[in-house]
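Morning. Coffee machine broken again, so started the prediction first thing and wrote up yesterday's gels while waiting. Chain of 595 residues, entered below exactly as on the submission form.
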Amino acid sequence: MDENDIRGLVAGVKQGTLSRRSFIRTLAAVGITAPIASQILLWNDVAMADATLEYKPTKAGGGGPLKLLVWQAPTLLNPHFAVGTKDQIASRIFFEPLAGWDKEGNLFPCLAAEVPTKANGGLAADGTSVTWKLKQGVRWHDGKPFTADDVVFTWTYASDLATAAYTTGSYKDIKVEKIDDHTVKVIFKDPTPFWADPFVGSVGPILPKHHFGEYAGAKSRDAPGNLKPVGTGPYRFVEFKPGDMIKAERNPDYHVKNQPHFDTLEVKGGGDAVSAARAVLQTGEYDFAWNLLVEDEVLKRMETSGKGRIDVQPSGNVEFMILNTTDPWTEVDGERSNAKTKHPSLSDPAVRKAINLLIDRDSIQKYIYGRGGTATASFVNEPKRFKSSKLTYEFNVDKANRILDEAGWKMGADGVREKGGKKLKYVFQTSTNAPRQKTQAIIKQACQKAGIELELKSVTASVFFSSDVGNPDTYTKFYCDMEMYATTQPQPDPERFLNQCVSWEIATKDNKWLGRNVSRWSDPEADKAYKAAQKELDPAKRAALLIKVNEIFCEANILVPLLSRTNVGGCLNNLMADLSGWDVTTWNLGSWYRS
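Came back before lunch.
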């Protein structure tokens, strides 16, 4: 299907001869998924469909308590410091963006009065700006009015490199102007095809200027609001014990009519995914459990109790490994894994290629993840038009051995290969969780057959995914040889997702290890392709550029994808929860209700 074919289909939708659903199904048949199909319609002035949960309560409140389990316990409540999904989920309870992403990849207005389009004057025809009209009558939890000043402040806050925000990449290259109290204009340096990044989704929550204004830049970590938020969300802050629990109450002045349904909210952290699943599916003690990283057979047995159900949402998330080409055991400029250093053996492409061949992805999918993931060799898997058809995976111990032999890594008397006095011995870390420990064991067993020794390390999830700059065991510090985790793609477009592959996002001590490029590896061609994609308005050409970035890192075996992950949550049977694989779990929390 070429561009003219797509234009013809768009014309059919506009004329009423083709339904929106048929348009999306037709494009899906040729690999263009619903989120991208929706974006194509939006760009061509066809309004987005509302795929959100139908909300049935006729008044706010009266629903009693809502109890959530986020077993990787949140440790902070500022969305712009939230490197881990757990902290993004917690922050979104209180802070809201201008718009979020529903389950079909449609933009859904939150603090915005409407989604910008060319028809309503929101989108510039040349792709250089977007104008947002803000919802009026919105108040912060302390009663102060929400205005354009808060939006502009959030831009200055996040774009300031001294703030060291996790979201800096979405704000540092734009300009934001206040048009009036309820209108802002985002100006891009160049034509920008994916304009729905700043102020949208997990990177977009707006901060109140009157609470954070004195804490921008170098003072950002001292703000009381990092732990005691004052937002615009459906629930107001009551109590927070980092690493343990959050308590909130219904916001009686919420800006969405008849929402929220529940009177109180409790988010409990700690424990593990299995106990979280049991607390919903078997005992019914909690209403919802997030990220049930549990063997699928175990979940199926729990579902037979009849109290709860598993909710699986397609997403762009990926379970993957990073092979460290820097030296994690030598300190340079006050940090290990410094980009200036070189790993004694993983800097050898042959070793990385061999390790990739020693991963039995099909067994990991079949015997561990089931509904939770599909084996893949591509870092980007959704939407399909951005997935590389060139990248393939293979499990081949014999081939791995041949590659290491040819590269001069000789088998030692202890069964471990070595060259030049350097042995293929590695520390392989991940978060503490049964499926991940089982995956580690599968990989270790295969590596032993090729003369590679792995020391398996598991770190408590609340520590591994922490934003604590003083913690040596966070995944962003990467103080080991290899590590494995899942990274989320919070938008139905992989541009921001792939900034994990650019040189200017390398995690360092200077940016408090909040840079998105945890691998520390970079390639000038990847940088060049990424920058070109940011300006390319032709969808096919842009997709090719982003695919190239993905391929460079995967073919170098820096990023080693294992599974294309789905979002797996557990719900009580009577809980109606609006979940999306393109945004955080709490993206539309105000609409949840009990049937």
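The CA atoms of residues 409 and 419 lie 5 Å apart. Going to sketch it on the whiteboard this afternoon.
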